[in-house]
């Protein structure tokens, strides 16, 4: 059953946390609308946005489903409700409510329904509860089958009255809630190929931070699979925000230097420190005010408290770890919900497994780490890593990862050996 059969359609976007904001609420709402407009780009027809109190009304010369699909990706709306809009007269409202329930009851005979009315225009002759009662009675009188069920209704008919227009809706999708992306500033998310880091970035985006991404590959000693994955993940994440950039840094040679310097069982933590140092320097260029990682306390050897502390010691910016208290299964479920799981599950050659000791240390000693690092010129190493960084903009309009973007020096590139599945994974 299509809503178009009942009149002009639109989509109601209920504001989430934004509506808790005080005097600066308009700033958040403007950001929300900017992000919505960006999400509507390329939809294939004109669209319009109208703002009422705590709700945004979205319409246009495009199918309602397309509007719903785009709006559901915009962070900051509590719900996305396809609706029919009619003039705010009793006759129009009643006729539409009755017609809708008749059609719904044909699909699902004997359904239980509830009417929830809300009057934004206090001039309207009936109060909200009077209107709900009136509509319920008219539906029962004119349509055979439906019954009123206020506790566990199969269908909730919501009726929202504005001065000129009234919106009727009987479908509701949960929105992504949170704060509009960008309203809290910018962050740089460390994106590996696993399940955790994309979920972490997504959570941080939902707290209003726009994210750029950095991925460290093991090039020239690993193939480009991890870069393809990071690219596909960033592209997926960019569908929820004004697109952020992906910086790809080939870490392999520096990893070898750490191994040669005698990192031994501290190799993984030493690498993680180098990543965070480098990311910190990169953040100064991208304007990020924080780093984001997918660490979850104790999940693997490198994420014990002692090792996280060792990493934080070299961080110039706060390291945000939104998954710190999450369990792996919760994280994987969330990865499925946001659309990154299918990419994360693909095989790759992670730079962290390169040179990883058989038994990684769970209690990195800072003095030992300092001793290893003193054998390297860290400033020089970091500068070289940054100089070699490649910058990509994973967006929906980019079909392929450019060949030179693998993070592997051309001579040693193994991009031909990227599993076909990794290439195919990049959402078209
Ligand atoms: P993930 O599932 O995100 O790969 P993980 O469980 O494998 O995480 P680690 O490998 O210990 O955990 O990595 C912890 C965090 O460090 C990651 O979530 C990510 O933010 C960052 N990180 C690890 N490896 C890389 C990499 N190669 N490039 C960028 N960031 C990385
Ligand atoms: Mg990992």
Automatic annotation (TrEMBL):
UniProt keyword Phosphoprotein, yes or no: no
Residues that bind ATP: 190-191, 215-216, 272, 294, 303
Domain THUMP: 65-172
Compositionally biased intervals (Low complexity): 409-428
Main location class: cytoplasm
Assigned EC number: 2.8.1.4
Organism domain of life: Bacteria
Record keywords, A-Z: ATP-binding, Cytoplasm, Nucleotide-binding, RNA-binding, Thiamine biosynthesis, Transferase, tRNA-binding
Stretches for region Disordered: 394-428
Annotated metabolic or biological route of this protein: Cofactor biosynthesis; thiamine diphosphate biosynthesis
Compartment(s): Cytoplasm
Catalytic activity field: [ThiS sulfur-carrier protein]-C-terminal Gly-Gly-AMP + S-sulfanyl-L-cysteinyl-[cysteine desulfurase] + AH2 = [ThiS sulfur-carrier protein]-C-terminal-Gly-aminoethanethioate + L-cysteinyl-[cysteine desulfurase] + A + AMP + 2 H(+); [ThiI sulfur-carrier protein]-S-sulfanyl-L-cysteine + a uridine in tRNA + 2 reduced [2Fe-2S]-[ferredoxin] + ATP + H(+) = [ThiI sulfur-carrier protein]-L-cysteine + a 4-thiouridine in tRNA + 2 oxidized [2Fe-2S]-[ferredoxin] + AMP + diphosphate
UniProt-listed HAMAP family: ThiI (MF_00021)
Cited NCBIfam families: tRNA uracil 4-sulfurtransferase ThiI
Similarity field: Belongs to the ThiI family.
Function: Catalyzes the ATP-dependent transfer of a sulfur to tRNA to produce 4-thiouridine in position 8 of tRNAs, which functions as a near-UV photosensor. Also catalyzes the transfer of sulfur to the sulfur carrier protein ThiS, forming ThiS-thiocarboxylate. This is a step in the synthesis of thiazole, in the thiamine biosynthesis pathway. The sulfur is donated as persulfide by IscS.
PANTHER family reported in the protein's UniProt record: TRNA SULFURTRANSFERASE (PTHR43209:SF1)
Listed name of the protein: Probable tRNA sulfurtransferase
């Amino acid at each position: 059953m299509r809503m178009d059969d009942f009149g002009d359609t639109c989509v109601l976007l209920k504001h989430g946390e934004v509506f808790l904001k005080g005097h600066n609420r308009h700033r958040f709402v403007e950001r929300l609308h900017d992000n919505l407009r960006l999400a509507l780009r390329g939809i294939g027809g004109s669209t319009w946005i109208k703002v009422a109190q705590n709700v945004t009304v979205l319409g246009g010369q495009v199918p309602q489903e397309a509007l719903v699909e785009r709006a559901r990706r915009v962070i900051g709306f509590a719900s996305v409700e396809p609706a029919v809009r009619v003039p705010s007269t009793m006759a129009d409202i009643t006729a539409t409510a009755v017609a809708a329930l008749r059609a719904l009851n044909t699909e699902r005979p004997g359904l239980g329904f509830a009417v929830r009315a809300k009057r934004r225009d206090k001039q309207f002759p009936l109060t909200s509860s009077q209107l709900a009662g009136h509509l319920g009675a008219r539906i029962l009188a004119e349509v055979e089958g439906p019954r009123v069920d206020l506790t566990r209704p199969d269908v909730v008919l919501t009726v929202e009255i504005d001065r000129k227009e009234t919106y009727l809706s009987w479908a509701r999708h949960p929105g992504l809630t949170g704060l509009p992306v960008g309203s809290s500033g910018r962050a740089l998310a460390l994106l590996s190929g696993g399940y955790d880091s994309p979920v972490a970035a997504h959570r941080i985006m939902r707290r209003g931070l726009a994210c750029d991404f950095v991925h460290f590959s093991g090039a020239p000693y690993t193939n480009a699979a991890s870069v393809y994955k990071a690219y596909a993940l960033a592209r997926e994440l960019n569908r929820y925000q004004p697109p952020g950039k992906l910086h790809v840094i080939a870490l392999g040679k520096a990893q070898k230097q750490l191994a040669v310097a005698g990192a031994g069982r501290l190799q993984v933590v030493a690498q993680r420190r180098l990543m965070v140092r480098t990311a910190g320097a990169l953040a100064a260029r991208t304007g990020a005010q924080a780093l984001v990682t997918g660490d979850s306390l104790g999940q693997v050897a490198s994420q014990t408290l002692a090792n996280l502390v060792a990493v934080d010691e070299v961080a110039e910016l706060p390291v945000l770890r939104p998954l710190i208290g999450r369990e792996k299964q919760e994280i994987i479920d969330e990865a499925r919900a946001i659309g990154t799981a299918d990419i994360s599950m693909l095989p790759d050659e992670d730079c962290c497994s390169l040179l990883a000791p058989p038994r990684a240390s769970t209690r990195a000693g800072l003095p030992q780490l300092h001793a290893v690092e003193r054998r390297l010129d860290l400033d020089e190493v970091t500068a070289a890593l940054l100089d070699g960084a490649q910058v990509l903009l994973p967006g929906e309009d980019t079909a392929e990862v450019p060949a030179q973007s693998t993070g592997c020096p051309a001579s040693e590139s193994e991009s031909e050996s990227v599993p076909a599945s990794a290439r195919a994974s990049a959402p078209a």
